[in-house]
Design goal:
Layout lengths: L11 H4 L11 H36 L1
């Protein structure tokens, strides 16, 4: 196998990746959907960060 690849030891030549089937959704549409989901996740991240910071602030007041 290594000789067939010209004695190149780059792992990518030997592990490969599975072929992904095209589901027919255009890139622009897929990107828009993923971007929307990412924006929602950033908003949730900010909300949770504020909640944790608030809890930490309350914990400091108890000391």
């Amino acid at each position: 196998m290594i000789a067939k690849e010209g004695h190149i030891l780059t792992p990518g030549r030997y592990v490969g990746s599975e072929a992904i089937e095209d589901d027919g959704v255009p890139f622009e549409q897929r990107f828009g959907t993923l971007k929307g989901a990412l924006i929602e996740q950033f908003a949730e991240s900010s909300r949770l960060e504020a909640l944790v910071m608030s809890a930490l602030g309350a914990a400091n007041e108890d000391e």
